[in-house]
Amino acid sequence: xxxxxxxxxxxxxxxxxxxxxxxxxxxxxxxxxxxxxxxxxxxxxxxxxxxxxxxxxxxxxxxxxxxxxxxxxxxxxxxxxxxxxxxxxxxxxxxxxxxxxxxxxxxxxxxxxxxx
Amino acid sequence: xxxxxxxxxxxxxxxxxxxxxxxxxxxxxxxxxxxxxxxxxxxxxxxxxxxxxxxxxxxxxxxxxxxxxxxxxxxxxxxxxxxxxxxxxxxxxxxxxxxxxxxxxxxxxxxxxxxxxxxxxxxxxxxxxxxxxxxxxxxxxxxxxxxxxxxxxxxxxxxxxxxxxxxxxxxxxxxxxxxxxxxxxxxxxxxxxxxxxxxxxxxxxxxxxxxxxxxxxxxxxxxxxxxxxxxxxxxxxxxxxxxxxxxxxxxxxxxxxxxxxxxxxxxxxxxxxxxxxxxxxxxxxxxxxxxxxxxxxxxxxxxxxxxxxxxxxxxxxxxxxxxxxxxxxxxxxxxxxxxxxxxxxxxxxxxxxxxxxxxxxxxxxxxxxxxxxxxxxxxxxxxxxxxxxxxxxxxxxxxxxxxxxxxxxxxxxxxxxxxxxxxxxxxxxxxxxxxxxxxxxxxxxxxxxxxxxxxxxxxxxxxxxxxxxxxxxxxxxxxxxxxxxxxxxxxxxxxxxxxxxxxxxxxxxxxxxxxxxxxxxxxxxxxxxxxxxxxxxxxxxxxxxxxxxxxxxxxxxxxxxxxxxxxxxxxxxxxxxxxxxxxxxxxxxxxxxxxxxxxxxxxxxxxxxxxx
Lengths: 116, 612
Description:
The structure holds two protein chains of two kinds.
Chain A: H1 18-50, H2 56-78, H3 87-111
Helix pairs in contact in A: 1-2
Chain B: H1 11-17, H2 21-49, H3 60-94, H4 103-122, H5 140-143, H6 148-176, H7 189-221, H8 235-267, H9 275-288, H10 304-316, H11 318-332, H12 341-364, H13 366-372, H14 376-406, H15 412-438, H16 455-481, E1 516-517, H17 523-530, E2 536-537, E3 544-546, H18 552-568, H19 575-594, E4 600-602, H20 604-611
Antiparallel strand pairs in B: 1-2, 3-4
Helix pairs in contact in B: 2-3, 2-4, 2-16, 3-4, 3-6, 3-8, 3-14, 4-6, 4-18, 6-7, 6-18, 7-8, 7-9, 8-12, 8-14, 9-11, 11-12, 12-14, 12-15, 14-15, 15-16, 18-19
């Protein structure tokens, strides 16, 4: 490397600007709220299966729904997919989902006992 | 580890360790051409066997092996690598990049493909090649005796990993490495179709990987995914195979569409008609390609609703494809058409491919499909789209880009002989096969009885195959006899429109001394008319950072190659060999991870000298 450009792994020096500080504070709040929400959703999922009061017919789609919410939170909050400059990863992930859902859904129907 | 200069190396070592996209592209082209000749030879042997009724040129078992290896070789080891060769060489040049995003991975992808291809063909010498068809339907493949199908499974697994790596590399390259000013909607169509084909690779190949893994576990380790008496389901393989297999045919045809778009526009001296419609048609074909796989399985017994849905989805693909055909015709309309060999292939493609498309819509009619299924009608259809589309595209691309890649022009007279013999041979071989299929000749049979109306058409078909063989020999001869037609001009056709025609021939290893500034679609053409005919630079001249070569991709691939033998002969007690191969593979990965390699710089003075 040497004379060619900066060393990207060098530690940062100096204080962040006011704007950056505000941004970091906001992000911290979002992260904490999402963290609490994640724990809450996970316990909801656990309770709906562990408790006998909730029928299985309701619990199964319910925990699938919770799982979807958690995946989205995970991707967008904890893995920062919502930040600027992530347009392509977003596009590719959603294209994959768009292709996979009809494929898997119709595959399940086609492999079933019922002939459509 | 940053060297001031690359060390000088022997020629062999240079090619074994290269990470230069141009050299890797050339290696893809050479290896692909070898496998293309091999697959062609297998086809000729099959056609000789079918020349006369009850002929005994090759035994039935050998015929099954020939037909399996012909299909597998042509799809995985010839068509795709040849396209990858052009993509590797041309796409970085078309987007104004100095290399692909991951040069090391690019080399790894090539060596994995080559070792996978060699592995597959080793089977010929050790107890017989795979014999269950290129689709390897279970239980035929899971119960097939001998080691042939094991070679199929592991050979495709290794080369498939290489393809997946290559596809991801192209995606990242096209997204991240475009020159300033080249927005997505200014990319040449070949780059666009490479991009969409790479997306298809990314989403489709995992299904093949899983299918092959299940088949390997079933054959070698006694799993029962497909064994009905243990509660398995044989249909799962067909679904997995075609979820991969149908996008695969678009992975082949879309880059060919891109090649034709470049050539038709260059040799009619016109901008491509309906550029944005072409881009969206490519995207739509790519998406719909995932939604139609079950049309290969209409007779499996999926049920009338499922059959209808897949029939309609399949027919829908004819719409974006039709848009493309009309756009090509309108590109030609009023253009100053030059009948070079490259353009002849592109012009012949339009009617030939349309015929394949029409039989495709016929096959998509699920009720009629019960009549066509597994007859020569299907054979005629897919050869019309693959030869009439992909192979004509490969030859067109070869003639068009040959001066850029190899520094000389292929002889036009021999080229026209080659073109006409090949085109006539192709139609002679496959046109009659439509009718063979309609009167009931099943595909994949080693022989047939005389006096059933099949004799004459089979004879004609074989003559056509000979013509294609002779044509290909003329092409190979012309490669060697044309070497004196050296070109040095950056734009040897005189009507280049895109960035690959802006650097000197032979292409410098850093491609662009200065990254170009792109101001419109057809960047070079724009500068010819609105500027001074030269690309404007987007950066000052400076030292150029280059990656170091490495032997590690070769060693990693060799490790998997050795390991595959260990798995194939697992029951003969060769588990240690499988482990040894994996140790070599992971060892090379470990070395790659801990060894820092920052590449080297070509000093500015040398770049200035190279430009002169």
